[in-house]
Amino acid sequence: MTFRPLRFAASVTALAMGAALGLGPVTPAQADEGMWTFDNFPIARANAALGTAIDQAWLDRVQRSSVKFGGCSAGVVSGEGLVLTNNHCVASCVAQLSTPAINYAETGFTPATRAEELRCPGASAEILMDITDVTARMHAAGRGLSGQAFNRARDTEAAAIEAEYCKDQPERRCQVVSLYRGGQFKLYSYRRYTDVRLAFAPEDRAATFGGDLDNFNFPRFAIDAAFIRLYENGAPVETPTHFTWNPDRPTAGEPVFVSGSPGSTQRLLTMDQLLTVRDVQLPLDQLIMSELRGRMIRFGSESDENAFIVMDPLVGLENSYKRGIGRMRALVDTDFMAAKAEQEADFRGRSGDWLAAHTAAGGADPWTTLSAVQDDVRRLYPAYALLVARAGGGSTLYGWAETLVRAAQERDKPAAERLPEYADTRLGGIESRLLADRPVYADLEQVRMEWWLSKSREWLTVDDPRIRTLLGRESPEGLSERLISGTTLADPAVRKALWDGGLPAIMASDDPLIRYVLSIQGVTRSVRAEWEDTVEAPTAQASEDLAAARFAAYGDSVYPDATGTLRLTWGRVEGWTYQGTTVQPFTTFGGLWDRSTGAAPFDVAPKLLAARDRIDPDTVLNMSVSTDTIGGSSGSPAINARGEIIGANFDSTVLTQRNAYGYDPSVNRSVIVTTGAITVALRDVYGMDGLLAELGVE
Amino acid sequence: MTFRPLRFAASVTALAMGAALGLGPVTPAQADEGMWTFDNFPIARANAALGTAIDQAWLDRVQRSSVKFGGCSAGVVSGEGLVLTNNHCVASCVAQLSTPAINYAETGFTPATRAEELRCPGASAEILMDITDVTARMHAAGRGLSGQAFNRARDTEAAAIEAEYCKDQPERRCQVVSLYRGGQFKLYSYRRYTDVRLAFAPEDRAATFGGDLDNFNFPRFAIDAAFIRLYENGAPVETPTHFTWNPDRPTAGEPVFVSGSPGSTQRLLTMDQLLTVRDVQLPLDQLIMSELRGRMIRFGSESDENAFIVMDPLVGLENSYKRGIGRMRALVDTDFMAAKAEQEADFRGRSGDWLAAHTAAGGADPWTTLSAVQDDVRRLYPAYALLVARAGGGSTLYGWAETLVRAAQERDKPAAERLPEYADTRLGGIESRLLADRPVYADLEQVRMEWWLSKSREWLTVDDPRIRTLLGRESPEGLSERLISGTTLADPAVRKALWDGGLPAIMASDDPLIRYVLSIQGVTRSVRAEWEDTVEAPTAQASEDLAAARFAAYGDSVYPDATGTLRLTWGRVEGWTYQGTTVQPFTTFGGLWDRSTGAAPFDVAPKLLAARDRIDPDTVLNMSVSTDTIGGSSGSPAINARGEIIGANFDSTVLTQRNAYGYDPSVNRSVIVTTGAITVALRDVYGMDGLLAELGVE
Known about the structure:
Strand content of chain A: 5-15%
Number of strands of chain A: 19
Largest interface: A-B, 41 and 41 residues
Largest sheet of chain A: 10 strands, antiparallel
Oligomer: homodimer
Shape of chain A: globular
Structural class of chain A: alpha+beta
Protein name (chains A, B): Dipeptidyl-peptidase
Helix content of chain A: 40-55%
EC number (chains A, B): 3.4.14.-
Radius of gyration of chain A: 24 Å
Organism (chains A, B): Brevundimonas halotolerans
Distance between the termini of chain A: 30 Å
GO molecular function (chains A, B): dipeptidyl-peptidase activity; serine-type aminopeptidase activity
């Protein structure tokens, strides 16, 4: 799968947003490259490349039919709020709705009627309505400032803009988005839906055949699809603008567009920045994830209940880890790095005039600035990664405690002094996620907390004063046991009382986890502040300068790095050839039967296996497409030239992980589950006749 | 600790033996640098540097008092075979002699009389008697050959030499050692003792205070010392040549020699080779170790029995992992790597004439050869690491099965066709280790096997034909469970029957693990053969050429890389200053009391704590010394200028891990437990009056 909304995702990408150049020839935006914004999509160029005839009306329809769903993407496929996404995008919801006794991951979730559709706790979905340029205001806000003052001025202005545009419209969400690494700022305004219900999920194994081993792999045999439905006031939302369902067999070479919200790319990092990612950031991230993986695997082997508890988090962790492995490989690939160095040389070669003017006006050389910042990144990254990006180790209870403590502390402050995630416009979203009734499993919570405390101590050393604050005289094992066994935050009513009670309630609380999080605020906040001041602010300012240099060198023929906002990419149904091996673009149900061994994760899901005789083995199951996607693109509608949906993007290949740093047209491939395969699943395996009728399938 | 005799140790160092240059100034062997052989020790230079007056007689006494003990070092300290080493060097023995009910790691092992000293299963100890130059014979054996033919010819000649020199002397062990990466070959002849008994071990926590967190750390507070005794014919061995025990308080700046068997350094790797270690080898090794660590930590948390079972293996794993972290840091340290590049440039600059003559005579440029081999290393390393270096994942049962199967297959072959470790001269050692009665714990064996199978599948991919052979249609979980629960190899009688029965017994066995190991011989042997042929042979040949170039450039003022053979290094008692922080060279018992928190691993061992009032808090516990040591040096006697033993080397610092690639006099430090602290432990904590009398302490 390509993306899951994990806290981990932020860590290796914390430095990175901005304008991008792919690999291959040095000229920008070659071949099928580019995650284009809808307000700067090169219609003519795409039509010329593909022989299609899309127009602005086509783009508008696609935009209004595309859905952002948590860390995933999705597409509206009926007039009654029905939305297609990936099964792995609803896996957490499925886990939360399940118990060891009634486990929808095992059985599939197949409501016979809409009344049986179940709400996903805390979930929301959004459709992008408008994009407004606010670059001038944002640039003005930061002018003349540096360090934390720069960060806070920008954050405050963004919060003010968001509040202005979304005023008195609770069904809207407004977000100021930095594009081209600060080269542009746009206000993205979304229609927001907070009642999202699960309408269908297959057996988990049908969606994850091959498990972690086949993840980021092709040929692939996974029905990684699910349906959700948007509700408002207890009824399905009317969605007259939607994709038409086209379950026809796809053809090799046909044009494909993918519309979704890729999370983050780092294509404009300088070579100095990339070497820091390679030498310091990825190794730390991967090493500690690997240990957590080992702890979780063993935890899951201890009982059936533990296996149930750990399944979804382990899949997420393994996905992040495998993506990291692909990135590590890209950054030690000498050809790939030589191509990146060549790009940088070309860019710098074209930027001589710009740089002369910039420095003459008193500006600093951004390449020099970014190079100098790397020493600080290398020095500060372990503390940032462990005490900020991964604080709590992914423990849900710790996350709730931190949110409660910080929200209480921040809500009392004026806007200009707040942590930006606690701006007034964002409190509603925080509250709904915090108060949603979701199961938590204390044993796994403790695994995470113990791991986090022990890795923090290991990487920062036992003699670091911050670690002394974190642990006192306790051990990670003892402290995590005390906190998790003693807290009552699993009860939504307790969380609600603390949220409503604000700072007085927090200060009066004797919940051990609340008291603990309070006691380490000095440490975690100061680590964050030092990182923002020393790393983020100068990086942001130098990167904005680089964006200006890039516009000067290449004009507007460049697209911005992914930022978790809606993009459109194009390509064709095609395989690839690598090191003498050619891979065909299609797999079939027949191939699935052939690959199955009966042993997990290569066992065919029982209901799917039982339907084998009803399924044409030549039906295309998955296909590879040369579109430019990355984590966050999961669930993105794959669309043909007529604007019909022909599949859902759910993955890419291990070779495609270099996509974070540059697009390589010879190997970058998206992996799509076809509407044809989904139709087979609904009709021949799970008997979802109501959905089929809604999709217009006869 | 600096070394444990783990299978893992081989993997990252497999490429590396040879002549060495430290860091700092480019001139060879600066400051206190150098792990010198006893037959080429620069007596005059050491005396000049230290103001001492050692001579050949001094060297001879030190050599005959120094002991190689498994993967560790040790020193004879009485006339009755008493030997001082580290507690961590006997930890596996202690674990094997213990049960959850009678756990000597908890209580310490404190025999009241010699009759209560217990034999360490399968252990042996050796004292180096003679060194003979066999370079000409070994060079002649390889001449004109390449690839596997070169390897086998060399192996065969070495086995022949060893057989010749040790003929009819079962108490001897002979070993042909490659020095200066094949620049020299020497026959090392040892007196071998196979009845080694445990004479004293402290409580484990007294030896490991601070656990993994304080490992490779200083200031340090660990009584990492233990005594073994050499026996023959049921009685202690007479050892008239031995170190005199000097428990006096050491002084800052005093000269110290350390005599021991450092395992492996890689100081002459070319830059191309170092980048492969950094980019490919260390990341794979560390990532998979980290996952195993996670599995083991969780396993140990499941019950008291599991905690007991996993303690010793986990300590060993964490030691290897932490050493790897130190090495990763060295290889991404830009200053360190710049110094290495400068050394290479100096060496190449001085080697122009040599290279011209070498190529004129038809030789290949060794730098070019080594550079070209790196593509193969990068391609082949995952299979080599997983299916050869780590085959079985450290499972003892798998190791026995592989030994039984291969020995049976190899013993039938003529000498020239055998795997070298099964040469006739080596069969005795294999047999005694194989048949020793040692406990194995099936649950932990399965953790290792499952981890190994699953990591092999992950790194080589599920579609690799070798993985299909390894797994068939089984899962790692199912296969490992079937093999470990079904095998009877834990019974020494079963192993003996299979060893004695040879190939017919093996082929007739229905033990599932024997059958499994037989079934994968084609895979594991061919991966090894390809590695030896494609990587090891050309690397060895190019490295021999580099050794010749080095002798030409620097004369005999260079010392060879560590090879697990006896070396002498000198330095002084001293601390260091790094990034503005100065560390003093001594710690005391008072410092131990201060550092204790009561929570593991910072809890003082109970008997030690109970003795607190009897111990002078100013007694020096550990000290740092600027000698040049590395893994394998654990237990090495630290000696003063009069040849008296003043401590046992047991560790170094994290910064010293760069020592593998180059010595940095400003930060490289050995960590020593003093004879004074050991005397306190024997006298004031554990009441070992007999040992004290034997050591001459009043």
